[in-house]
Specification:
The complex is a heterodimer of chains A (198) and B (251). Chain A is an alpha/beta fold and 198 residues long. Chain A has one domain (2-191): Rossmann fold. Chain A has six helices and 13 strands. Chain A has helices at residues 13-19, 27-32, 44-51, 55-63, 73-76, 180-191; strands at residues 2-4, 22-23, 35-38, 68-71, 81-82, 87-88, 95-99, 107-115, 129-135, 137-141, 145-153, 156-166, 169-172. In chain A, α1 links the parallel β1 (2-4) and β2 (22-23). Chain B has 251 residues and is an alpha/beta fold. Chain B has one domain (5-244): TIM Barrel (Alpha-Beta Barrel), CATH 3.20.20.70. Chain B has helices at residues 32-42, 56-72, 86-94, 104-108, 111-120, 153-163, 184-193, 207-216, 226-229, 235-244; strands at 5-13, 16-17, 46-51, 77-80, 99-102, 125-134, 137-142, 147-152, 167-172, 198-201, 221-224. An eight-stranded parallel β-barrel of chain B has the order 1-3-4-5-6-9-10-11, surrounded by seven helices. In chain B, α1 runs parallel beside α2 (56-72) and α3 (86-94) runs parallel beside α5. Classes of the chains: A alpha/beta (198), B alpha/beta (251). The interface between A and B is medium-sized, with 32 and 31 residues.
Chain lengths: 198, 251
């Protein structure tokens, strides 16, 4: 069972359908799930409040090596200090969430992702494929980055993580559920991941 | 680098697509879901649904439609038409819309832009502007282009940005429906005046029109309705043309 944790104000039917997941915020059900997805649309503070009681279960889930996918805010919340909320996130992963520079913010639209090499999550997705982004903040982290995106503004070039991965923990800055066939492929890849990848 | 976006617009009344559409391989030409799916397959970057029902019943149907669209398509879509409260906007986002646009309500009470962007997030709130040339400037119109306002389009675009609009959907009333090409002077003026993305609308009649608007102005996206509906151009062909012209599109 894939547990989808609904936190924001947005509709998550387009995450739920391709993953065939179950929407829940019950820690006991999440604990029993094989995989977990945290989609993220909404405001940092309200979402964090809802996620706080689940900090333990998420942390154990990731530590146990069960496949986890955080989308946009659902990824950003796992880190430490967050500039948007001017508060700490769940501090499950090391790193901070910072604002994009003014000229590139908000970063909305279709941008390419440069994948470092083949990973189960990017299986079948051509390097430099387009994904849909809508955000003003990015993660600055030591967690391995497996996909990068660039924004160009006059001469200024900003590069930020589009996909991060540590074992079976994945995070995407873009919205796979809004990224057409590439996004659906990524979600399908996630659904077919096995547990305990190195 | 962000791709220039190509957007298809669908006019909706009572949950059905209006304006004649004659796709050959479509079972039900008035079904917005089927059209939206087809556009997604052809590579459209975004879809705008403009509700012209203007009745409470039509509005209820729109909410259901949005929910269905959200579960059927996997690209972003924007909804608007006669919305005048943040409650309606929030409910549409809850039902699955990615962005909301407002026009008349924003002109009548500009504070709704601030309120809307606080609740939905600035990037999810689009202000639509209908502009018509008068002498050396452009005046804005509301109520579906029927009511002239003594307001300069450039200053209004600035004000909308200051109040928190995340994007401007700019329609040239002089070009709308003419297929004579986008209104380059208007789009150039406003896209260079604001920092937020501007979507060009009104006048698209050929692939050359799209390449011209991206070459000559700073718009982030260009929108069309009828040239896609009537299959004069499909999105895939349009994008391959733009790519050959070195315009950065998702392809």
């Amino acid at each position: 069972m894939i547990a989808i944790v609904d936190l924001g104000i947005g509709n998550i039917s387009n995450v739920k359908r391709p993953l065939k997941g179950t929407v829940t915020d019950d820690p006991y059900r999440i604990e029993k799930a094989d995989k977990m997805v945290v989609p993220g649309v909404g405001n940092f503070c309200t979402v964090k409040e809802k996620l706080n009681p689940l900090k333990g279960v998420i942390s154990d889930f990731i530590e146990d090596g069960k496949p986890f996918l955080g989308i946009c805010l659902g990824m950003q919340l796992l880190f430490g200090y967050n500039e948007e909320g001017k508060a700490k996130g769940l501090e499950i992963l090391e790193g901070e969430v910072k604002g994009l520079d003014r000229a590139s913010s908000p970063h909305i639209g279709w941008n390419t992702v440069k994948f470092d090499s083949d990973f189960p999550i990017s299986n079948g997705i051509t390097d430099r494929s387009f994904f849909y982004f809508t955000h003003s903040y990015y993660v600055d982290t030591e967690v391995p980055i497996i996909g990068k995106t660039e924004v160009l503004n006059s001469d200024e070039k900003t590069v930020f993580p589009a996909v991060i991965r540590s074992g079976n923990m994945y995070g995407t800055q873009f919205h796979p559920e809004k990224s057409g066939s590439n996004g659906l492929r990524l979600l399908e890849n996630f659904s077919s991941l096995g547990g305990d990848e190195p | 680098m962000l791709a220039k976006r190509i957007i298809a617009a669908l006019d909706i009344k009572g949950g059905r697509v209006v304006k004649g559409i004659n796709f050959e391989n479509i079972r039900d030409a008035g079904d917005p879901i089927e059209l939206a799916k087809r556009y997604e397959e052809e590579g459209i970057d975004e879809i705008v649904f403009l509700d012209i029902s203007a009745t409470n019943e039509g509005r209820d149907i729109l909410f259901d439609l949005v929910e269905e669209v959200a579960s059927e398509i996997h690209i972003p879509f924007t909804v608007g038409g006669g919305l005048d409260s943040t409650d309606q906007m929030t409910e549409l986002i809850r039902n699955g819309a990615d962005k909301i646009f407002i026009n008349t309500a924003a002109v009548e009470d500009p504070d709704i832009i601030r309120e809307g962007s606080d609740v939905l997030g600035s990037s999810n709130l689009v202000v639509a502007i209908d502009a018509k040339k008068e002498g050396e400037e452009w005046k804005i119109y509301t109520h579906g282009g029927t009511k002239r306002r003594d307001m300069d389009a450039v200053s209004w675009a600035h004000k909308a940005e200051d109040l928190g609009a995340g994007e401007i959907l700019l329609t040239s009333m002089d070009r709308d429906g003419t297929k004579e090409g986008f209104d380059i002077p208007l789009l150039k003026r406003i896209s260079s005046a604001v920092d937020i993305p501007v979507v060009a609308s009104g006048g698209a009649g050929s692939a050359e029109d799209f390449s011209e608007v991206f070459d000559k102005t700073e718009v982030s996206a260009a929108l069309a309705a009828s040239i896609f509906h009537y299959e004069e151009w499909n999105v895939f062909e349009l994008k391959s043309y733009l790519k050959r012209r070195d315009i950065h599109v998702r392809y």
